[in-house]
């Protein structure tokens, strides 16, 4: 028996703080690593439900894939079985695209087939009619409980796991990384992961869990917090039904890995929208914000901010005291960066005397600034040595933890050289080096790729970089305070 | 006599509210439309000071360009005169790149030559040594006053004006638009204008005025507020010396055109950075924010936000009541957009009954939402008709002022069709239509170009779009309140 929904899980947790992952959460392992998958209700042609099959084929799923259709014996050339019972193999995961009215019959088949995981893409439950939908969702959970399987959804896209060759959409990245993404919105899974891949940031696993009638955010969170392949957790969340369970997971796991959370439905308007999207009960903004503070969860407010944080945590090891130095060619963004350092509660590093001396030797007398922020002047766009030497000097200053560098050359060739120069210096430095690809400066995104590949974060503005860096440093302090309390 | 710096200007203004532009500001006309330009101190080869000559050549300046060099008779093949006096022509504008120590001699030559405008690129004044620098800058203004010319700078890049073929950098756009950009940072001029050109947003004029020893932000603001080619004003500002003069200009011009202001140096750290960048005295954050509120100035906090506002004001005529409807394929960003509507003080439009009826007829029963935000479901990515018909329905709802649409197809070809469909609907609608090119959805920027060309704003996230739209609506209300008070 693989777990029995919400009730049993709650009982287990009342036993108190657990150091090992609970068996109920271990039961989720086949969710991220199924051996065989049956797709029920795959449509003919290019229709929405087809994305699951296309996703698995594109991702190169190594296990067995079976199509099930009540009447057709083939779908677009692939063999189709009439029912789960007809498949001459055991089935770990079922993905259900069938119409709503057939869902009970399908779940009954799953029960008989002794499957482990059922992903219900089918929608039209609590997000359409809250009262009746919740009843139906309770019934799904009860069936799962009886059958010893777990249900993800309904109204969800299920799992992306490049490690296991799982994807609910075609053209998702095949590369693996160490970020997990838990999202109530399936489309966002696709969008966010693709957006990150452009910056060479990749994922361990992702789960779209929709209305979460059985497996919910808290369980998925516990699983990824215990997963060795995951170092960072991102989440898009509309609502959580069992807030006590969520708090218990946070109590166990807080500070172990950064949790970056985009919590929507924080206003009346958002609350109503969430209700008709995943049937979530949201609201209670202040309660949520208190939870974030107490458990060191990093709150973000849009997809760009979530990316900014994911990139920062991916590339920069947590350390230091948040003392920031800024190097800029253009003087304007340097001033604005200094504002952003202070507004975000970071410290504009006080340069060591030898640093100032060396900067004075390096930079032209006028049109530059040898204090922090360091303005290397317009001349640096023509002679990149000013950028490189200034970066070298600052990375050797013991009063500095992070250097933000904003610049570039006058053409693509020089920009390529600029990128390589920064990578070279990063290789021998233990400081945080953060680059700014200021809009209009380095216009060709391709040129920035080596930075991403070499683990150097690239932000579009210093304001965005510093906001993310400050959030990282706050998490780092939170983590240290937890570790201190634990020891 | 063309004007006499700060003192005379102050006297003029104490006369009270002026309805016509003052003659002192009219005297700035040659700044944006010189007939002849002399460049003093152009370096050989590709060095920073060369950008002015390259800029004028690249922009195709129609007037006469003369190079001046104390010893060389040619520079990179161009004829050079030994002094201004040797040029057999009258000179409207002089751009000075000479070393700091030669500045007095050069200004004396300008005085004798009876030039109209002197742009001092040369730096090393109040931004390096505040006390001595201010003395030198006062002396520059006095000489200008005596000579009947105006000085821009020192430590600045001067003027960009595609209407007149002026540019201080090569490769700036040749297209003209209706935005003016006033900036203390010269590099930002180049960066912001290039960044905007990628979105097909163009400029009437721009001025980089650096330490502003003579012509200052207030005068430039008055000039662009009166300029028929300018409809929107953007500004990057570190500090203003004569705040009373600034307030008088605002009293005269407030609400006439939107002023989008990126004011830096708002913190201690930023204040120090600004002092060593343009010698500006900044600070007094609360005073500034009170000014912004009182005179309807739109405050932005980074270059992306400035672009978001410039794009919105460029494309959307001010009207309506801020009642927003959202159409989205992915459900997640739709919920987040609903939050953003409310958080920004806008109204999530209550759909008319017929609208809801028509949406119910259009959209599949499940996996969609027929309330606002309208979730057209995953199916819309496969059949764009859902997007187009929903947009058509919403643009015909009298309860709606603006429709935010977030979507796309499953491949580039469909995305091109999606873009064309939106343009088609916009052509027959008087509503504000705002598109969201969600990261990871339409990845190819080229595909979005027709939207920019057809005056449809494109934002990366609904959060950014709604923040900008809310600021526009606040300005619109401010403008109406001013007009009411005036009538």
Q: How does the SSE layout of this entry go?
A:
The structure is a homodimer of 487-residue chains.
Chain A (H helix, E strand, L loop, with lengths): L4 H10 L8 H4 L2 H4 L3 E5 L10 H9 L4 E5 L5 E2 L2 E4 L11 E4 L6 H11 L3 E4 L9 H18 L2 E3 L5 E3 L15 E8 L2 H12 L5 E6 L8 H10 L5 E6 L5 H11 L5 E5 L4 H11 L6 H10 L3 E3 L2 H13 L7 E6 L2 H13 L3 E2 L4 H10 L11 E2 L9 H11 L6 E5 L5 H16 L4 E5 L8 H9 L4 E2 L2 H25 L1
Parallel strand pairs in A: 1-2, 1-5, 2-4, 5-6, 6-7, 9-10, 9-11, 11-12, 12-13, 14-15, 14-16, 14-17, 17-18, 18-19
Antiparallel strand pairs in A: 3-4, 8-10
Total of DSSP H or I helical runs spanning 4+ residues of chain A: 18
Instruction: From the alpha carbons, calculate the radius of gyration of chain A and give it in angstroms.
Output: 25 Å
The secondary-structure class of chain A comes to alpha/beta
Main β-sheet description of chain A: 7 strands, mixed
What is the mean predicted local confidence, pLDDT of chain A? 91
Return residue spans of chain A where pLDDT drops below 50 for at least 5 consecutive residues: 1-20
Distance between the termini of chain A: 37 Å
Most extensive protein-chain contact, per-chain counts = A-B, 84 and 83 residues
Total strands of chain A: the figure is 19
Shape of chain A: elongated
**What oligomeric assembly is this protein in?**
homodimer
Quick recap:
Chain A has 487 residues and is α/β, with parallel strands linked by helices. Chain A has 18 helices and 19 strands. In chain A, the strands form three sheets. In chain A, strands 3-4-2-1-5-6-7 form a seven-stranded mixed β-sheet, with helices on both faces.
């Amino acid at each position: 028996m693989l777990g029995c929904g919400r009730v049993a899980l709650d009982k287990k947790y009342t036993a108190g703080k657990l150091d090992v992952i609970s068996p109920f959460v271990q039961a989720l392992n086949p969710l991220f690593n199924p051996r065989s998958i049956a797709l029920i209700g795959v449509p003919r042609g290019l229709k929405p439900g087809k994305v699951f099959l296309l996703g698995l084929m594109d991702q190169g799923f190594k296990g067995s894939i079976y199509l099930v259709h009540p009447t057709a014996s083939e779908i677009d050339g692939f063999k189709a079985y009439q029912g789960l019972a007809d498949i001459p193999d055991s089935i770990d995961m079922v993905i259900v695209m069938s119409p709503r009215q057939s869902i009970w019959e399908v779940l009954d088949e799953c029960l008989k087939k002794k499957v482990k995981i059922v992903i219900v893409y089918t929608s039209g439950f609590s997000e359409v009619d809250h009262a009746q939908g919740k009843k139906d969702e309770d019934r799904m959970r009860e069936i799962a409980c009886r059958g010893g399987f777990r249900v993800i959804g309904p109204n969800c896209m299920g799992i992306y796991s490049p490690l296991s060759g799982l994807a609910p959409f075609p053209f998702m990245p095949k590369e693996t990384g160490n970020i997990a993404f838990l999202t109530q919105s399936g489309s966002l899974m696709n969008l966010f992961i693709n957006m990150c891949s452009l910056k060479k940031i990749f994922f361990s696993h992702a789960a779209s869990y929709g209305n979460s009638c059985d497996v919910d955010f808290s369980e998925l969170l516990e699983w990824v917090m215990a997963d060795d392949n995951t170092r960072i957790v991102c989440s898009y969340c509309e609502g959580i039904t069992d807030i006590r369970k969520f708090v218990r997971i946070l109590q166990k796991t807080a500070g172990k890995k950064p949790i970056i959370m985009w919590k929507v439905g924080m206003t009346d308007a958002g609350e109503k929208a969430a209700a008709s999207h995943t049937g979530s009960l949201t609201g209670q903004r202040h309660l949520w914000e208190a939870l974030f503070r107490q458990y060191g969860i990093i709150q973000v407010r849009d997809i760009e901010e979530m990316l900014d944080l994911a990139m920062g945590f991916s590339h920069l090891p947590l350390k230091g005291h948040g003392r920031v130095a800024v190097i800029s060619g253009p003087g304007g963004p340097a001033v604005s960066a200094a504002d952003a350092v202070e507004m975000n509660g970071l410290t504009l590093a006080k340069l060591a005397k030898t640093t100032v001396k060396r900067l004075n030797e390096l930079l032209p007398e006028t049109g530059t600034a040898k204090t922090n922020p360091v303005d290397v002047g317009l001349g640096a766009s023509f002679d990149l040595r000013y950028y490189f030497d200034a970066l070298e000097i600052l990375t050797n200053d013991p009063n500095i933890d992070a250097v933000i560098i904003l610049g570039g050359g006058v053409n693509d060739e020089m920009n390529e050289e600029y990128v390589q120069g920064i990578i070279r210096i990063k290789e021998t430095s233990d400081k945080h080096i953060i680059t700014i690809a200021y809009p209009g400066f380095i216009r060709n995104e391709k040129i920035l790729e080596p930075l991403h590949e070499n683990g150097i974060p690239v932000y579009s503005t210093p304001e965005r970089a510093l906001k993310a860096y400050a959030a990282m440093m706050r998490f780092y302090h939170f983590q240290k305070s937890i570790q201190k309390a634990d020891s």
